[in-house]
Amino acid sequence: MRTFMHRQSKTSVAACAPLVPKGWRRLALVPVVLALSACGDIARLVTPGSKGPNGPAMIAFTASVPLRVSSAVDVVTLNVTSSYRRTDGTLVRIGSQIMTLTSDAVQAVPIPVDVGTCLADATRDAGGASSTNGSCAVVLTLDLVINGIVVDRQVVGPLRLQPGATTTVAQPVTLNDLAAVEVQIGGSIVLPSATVQAFLGTPLLLSARVLDARGQVVTNRPITWNSDAPTVATVDPNTGVVTAVSVGTAKITANTGTVSATATVNVLRAPAALTVTVGAGGGAGTVRSTPAGVDCRVAGGVMTGTCTFSFPGDAAVSLVSTANAGSVFSAWGDACSAASIGASCQLMMSQVRSARVQFAALRRVSVSPASGSTGRGRVTGANGFDCRVAASATTGTCAVDIVEGTALQLTASPEALTTGGTRQFFAGWGGACASATGVTCTVTPTTTDLTTTAQFFDVQQIAVSVAGNGGGMVTGGSTISCVRSGGATTGTCAETATFGTSVTLTAVADAQSNFAGWAGACTGTSTTCTTSLTAIRNVSATFTRRQLTMTVNLVGPGSGSVSVNGTPCVLPSGQPTTTCTTTFDAGATVTLSANAAAGSNFTAFSGACSGTGNCALVLNQSQSVSATFTISRFPLTVTLSGTGAGAVVLPDGSSCSLALGQTSTTCTAQVNAGTNVSMAATPTIESTFEGFTGDCSGRGGCSFVMSAPRMVGVALTRKQVPLTLQLRGPGGGSVSVNGAVACTISLGQSSASCTRQIDYGTSVSLTATPTFESLFNGFDGDCAGGSCAVVMTAPRSVGATFTRRQVSLALQLRGPGGGSVSINGVVACTITLGQTSANCTRLIDFGSSVSLTASPTIESSFNGFDGDCTGSSCTVTATADRVVGATFSRRLVPLVLTLSGPASGSVRINGITECTLLPGVASISCTKMLEYGATVTITGRSTSSFNEYVLSGDCGGGLGDAPTCSLVMTSPRSVGIAFR
């Protein structure tokens, strides 16, 4: 790789990119590809230079150019055009340059940009800041040219360039030897001669594939889309999503670099559904379409067959309706309202359509004579209706079929009077015309056939009946004289007359009776009645006996009843008065008798009767009688007893109470007989109601009727509430309530719970007593601290904690050695090497047995325990405070010095002579005990004139007149020195 760097005095841009994949250089006729991307280490690529405000601003790229293997030499250049952007968005060209690319696989391409013109322009885009901030927004147009032909073009920027700074390109830029662009739909290529269909309201996604000169797909290539007819179809410039706007044709083009491809899009309306619905009507028929598709059958509002079909957009559809036998086509609706001619409808399917069709059923309207018709007449109407009625027979057209919902008016006319004949009259309608008045009737059949009746008469009858327990007579007309007497009817009570004759009837009661009123063709209580014989008339007249009243007034405060001819008039208990009124026929005999209710007394009659016996009256006029009742009284005795306190309210409002400390109390009240007594016991807050006895029982309410003397007992007890004691260990002890032991926990037990019932409101004192081995730590819950007194106005819970009593174990460690002492395997005290002493104290559960173990450090030795322990081991029972001492000394290891001749000399250890070999002595051995880990210096010195020596043992060998050796005493050492 050759790297080309560029530097100039103006602001400049340089470029870098990753290496071309291996193997490209081995391919024949490989098109040129120039890849430009942002550098990760720009400072490594640009030429070092000034970093001040007058220095260049740079962007680094690397060009990757694969070698084209051919006999000809390809000329590959990079043409760069630079422009700067003004604040109004316009671009001003700075200049251009042509850079010839070599055949190197990867090369750095400098792209110098002279921004002097830009910096001098006050209207340049300075990034929103003042134009004096020395930056420019620069756009680079990169053209890749091979042998004079532009094969690709890309635009980079705008890049913010500023003297003295380096700008990094945010996105990679790749230039290829592009050959073509293919437009695709769903992975299929759209040929230039093909047309793509799009529907209004449905988006169409186009994609593009870019190919290079050897037909390979170029990936990650940005595509720009545009439409030549945006009023027909628009396209998203980045995604290729086509939106149909209107019917027509638009060309959609995909552009990238120097290549493009176009697809022709034909915008159509989307297929639209045509739905046939049914309107009101009970008819049946078929709706079919041209072109074929709809074949819908209708029967009384129920649709079957194909009633919905989708036609192409803008299709012209004709609907034709055909009614079944017994039905007719009625009307179109919805989209066919204005597009129909008779039974057919023409529609354009430019959108979803709905066509409503109605078929009407033919309904039969018929006329027949009404029951009892005796005359003659004629009923006429539209559609040829002409029916002749003679008594119960008909001739002519008495029934016609009409479309449901169609109104048909019928007209009735009686037969004209003929010489010697009887005059005829129309009496009225029936059936479907029952509500009509006059000679005309309009009927409108909907869901069923309709039948009506017509009635014609020649003469009419009026008949009178007389009823009731009274007597009298009804007269009127020409011959009517109908008499009622002794419960029987006699005389002339009926006659006939010409239709429409007016007849007046008069009712006259006898001396012992009243006229009660008319019924039938006459109503009301007037003694006269007039009716017209337009139909058969039946009239009823009622006469009743004259009535007198018997009034009975019952007065309290007692209760009872008075029987009036066996019918009781009752005064209920607690009601002050009651009045009863009874009606009797004039002259009737009435007997009254009084009866007092239980608990009451009858005092006497007054008014039309007197005394206390039965009373008999003959009613020649209305009468009034009063009866007085008084109340009996019974004693009610209530006794309250027990250890509790409370009260009961008596019926007279007084209170019967039992106080705490009383054993019983009795109260008495006089209560009216028959009184409903209801009592409830109310205990005090310290007490509980246990129940009623005597004439009441149970703990509920007490209710009874005072029909006799009553006795009721009320039991009250002192209420108790629970006191719960929660004792916790590990210590042992007990808690007493008012001096009596109430709960105990044993030594080592984790918890104990006890509950005592205490009288409500009492004050109790709690005392905790630990065992000899334990300590009391205090109360908690409804008490706190070392003492406890609670008032039992609610359930209480008190906790008490007992812990193990502890004694001190003092450890006294002495040096100069180091080590530690453990209690039951846990280190409790430590002394370090060289420390003279260390003291530690631990608390031990009273009575427990502990084992002490001494562990010296590696440099030390344990000399033994003293105090409450002696020797090398120690076990202490904690029945009192204990003191144990432990001594650690420095560990000593031997250093053995062996001196030998033939010469004489001495050895010093750390400067002190420790061993001497005298003249004439063959050898000598000396032993020195030294502290473990100490560093010693061994120096040998000869006393002869020939001072050669030899070292052996832990100091190795050597020669000299003053041999020196250093050792660390981590184990026994041995050193030999031979003096020669």
Structure description:
- Helix content is 1%, strand content 59%.
- The strands form 22 sheets. Strands 21, 25, 27, 30, 34, 36 and 38 form a 7-stranded mixed sheet that branches. Strands 24-23-22-26-29-28 form a 6-stranded antiparallel sheet, with no helix packed on it.
- Strand 22 and strand 23 (295-299) form a beta hairpin.
- It is mainly β and 980 residues long.
Compact summary:
1% of the residues lie in helices and 59% in strands.
Topology:
Elements: E1 12-15, E2 33-36, H1 42-45, E3 62-64, E4 76-85, E5 91-101, E6 106-112, H2 116-119, E7 136-146, E8 149-161, E9 173-176, E10 178-185, E11 188-189, E12 195-199, E13 204-205, E14 207-212, E15 217-218, E16 224-227, E17 233-235, E18 241-244, E19 248-256, E20 259-268, E21 272-278, E22 284-290, E23 295-299, E24 302-306, E25 308-311, E26 316-323, E27 327-334, E28 340-341, E29 344-348, E30 353-369, E31 376-381, E32 385-390, E33 393-397, E34 399-403, E35 408-414, E36 425-431, E37 440-443, E38 450-457, E39 459-467, E40 472-476, E41 480-485, E42 488-492, E43 494-498, E44 502-509, E45 513-520, E46 528-532, E47 537-545, E48 547-555, E49 560-564, E50 567-571, E51 577-585, E52 589-596, E53 600-607, E54 615-618, E55 623-631, E56 633-642, E57 646-649, E58 655-658, E59 664-672, E60 676-679, E61 681-683, E62 687-694, E63 702-705, E64 710-718, E65 720-728, E66 733-737, E67 740-745, E68 751-759, E69 763-770, E70 774-781, E71 788-791, E72 796-804, E73 806-814, E74 819-823, E75 826-831, E76 837-845, E77 849-856, E78 860-867, ...
Parallel strand pairs: 12-20, 21-30, 30-38, 39-47, 48-55, 56-64, 65-72, 73-80, 81-88
Antiparallel strand pairs: 1-6, 2-9, 3-6, 4-5, 4-7, 7-8, 10-11, 10-14, 13-18, 14-15, 16-19, 17-18, 19-20, 21-25, 22-23, 22-26, 23-24, 26-29, 27-30, 28-29, 30-34, 31-32, 31-35, 32-33, 35-37, 36-38, 39-43, 40-41, 40-44, 41-42, 44-46, 45-47, 48-51, 49-50, 49-52, 52-54, 53-55, 56-59, 57-58, 57-61, ...
